[in-house]
Amino acid sequence: MDYAASDVPAFLPALPEIILALGAMALLMYGVFRKECDARETSFGVLGLFALVGAVLITEPNATVHTFGDTFVVSGFTKFMKLLILLAAAAAIVMSLTYIRREKMDRFEFPVLIALATLGMFMMVSANGLISLYMGLELQSLSLYVIAAFNRDSGRATEAGLKYFVLGALASGMLLYGASLIYGFTGTVEFPAIAAVLETEGANIGTIFGIVFVLAGLAFKISAVPFHMWTPDVYEGAPTPVTAFFAGAPKVAAMALVLRVLFGAFPAMEAEWQQIVIFISIASMVLGAFAAIGQSNIKRLMAYSSISHMGFALVGVAAGTPEGIRGVLIYLVIYVVMNAGVFCCILAMQRKEGYVETIGDLSGLSRNQPMVAFLLAMLMFSLAGVPPLAGFFGKFYVFMAAIEAGLYPLAVIGVLSSVVGAYYYLRIVKIMYFDEPAEPFEQPMPGELAAILGVSGVFTMLFFVYPAPLILGAQAAVGALLP
Amino acid sequence: MIATAIAFYLFAAITVASGFMVIAARNPVHSVLFLILAFFNAAALFVLMGAEFLALILVIVYVGAVAVLFLFVVMMLDVDFSELREGFLQYLPVGALVGIILLIELLLVLGGWLISPEAAGVAAAPTPAITDVDNTRALGRIVYTQYVYLFQAAGMILLVAMIGAIVLTLRHKPNVKRQVIRDQVARTREQAVENRKVEPGQGL
Asked: Which of A47, A64, A68, A251 could make an SS bond with B149 (beta carbons 3.0 to 4.6 A apart)?
């Protein structure tokens, strides 16, 4: 048995991941060996690295390529998802620039850990087997646990990190248990091979058990009910830019993983997993809508909002049609952009004594900062799904797909819970415009926050004018996901 | 052939004997030294089987790192091991039971191979013959060629774990006195010594 050159796997398809890994390690070395290195330098380093990776991603061909013995796949779908993740992560780093200096968590590891978490998300999106799925998921989660507790002198941040770690480890355990059942009953760990085995032999009870456990682990990562318990506590306790990061990129990566697992490995068992997805979707939408009503902390409110948004996105997954998946992708893009804008406003809620985060602090914002109040109001209308803003179109595409797939009860419950959810979004608008002004926030808001808020607001308001590029891009990505 | 057999029985006998001495020796330091002897002889047995890579790993990792760590712990912790030993007879029945169960299981596995020699061939990934591929190369192919992606990913996860541990726990305390040789050498006589005129009967 001699060594043959053809045994060496092709590394070129994984070029963005390799650049990201090497760049993150180089920045880490730079931070360690340079005395008195603060987060600002490595932040710009990581942003440069993201720009390079983005350029490499865009120039990659759209063809589907498998490498590393079928455990890694690159296609138009992974390209779309990776670009979205990169955008969300870069926005999170930009949003953290001012905050971490004021809150004394100005250490160079912060952006490096975000870069490593992004690497994990890339690996999740490209995973084509159960082992590579778990590796990517663990790399991402481990970085997120550390980032959640990054402000180690704050009791709340430490509590958030510990809670996230313990519950996340439990979810990883469930996912591994499910993966071992699937491996045991199909005899392989690669998604295409699993799909081929199930195609010929049909479903059996062991594989169904495995899917249930894997979906439970993944539902934890997208914070879908009934695995959402960690979300409000972690969102509230973690530093605000970290919360902004949690609400964006990891959700996209985990949703991409759900799509990969369900449509890559288990297309033959759609009847079985569809019931689970429908249940998770309804539970998330309803709980997100009702539990958010009583919240007074805006970060907790955004946590419940993200739970219900994941429920809406899962409506498209439950439909199981190409239109449904296209709806999910469009929904994710719009959700990430809206979320970035809202968190910019939350990050601008600072007075002399520090950052504040109750909804009452926003009262009368329209008289102190009319422009910010207007944009935030538009984002809230959009989150509630009021036409013609972007959020309406996200919901429109997934509900249309559900109706075409014959899932009328799901679509009706979705619309009703969206109406309930509109109450708490509109309450914020009412507080900003009709309540007595509170003590004003520090003005002007930092330039980078204003820029992201502006882009997000303009995208949200003008999406309906020219939605074709996003819809066509999502369409192409879906074509690459479904064979 | 006879030389191999003699070597095998020699190494095997010493392994078993030093394994027994690990639990029988009165002095815990002697126990660790017997453990090291057992490791060395097990490594020699691996060499006899043609698994030279595993033999070297056993010596480097277990003797070089783990056993030395044991030795440090045993010598640094002030544990009275003779006291720990007092309940020996009391625990003997349970220990013997566990040992006997293990022995029966081993005999069953070996017996299965004796009864049907083809059983080893139906494993999911049968081991190729030692003449086909040497084990260093076989391990290298699996870890660094076939599963290189997963191997590197595991490396990244460990790196994140290390960064996390440092970020969350390392604190630079400002008033800890550290030895900086450079500063000590650069000190001049004027900085270190001071001449004072002391009046008689007054002191400083």
From this structure: A68
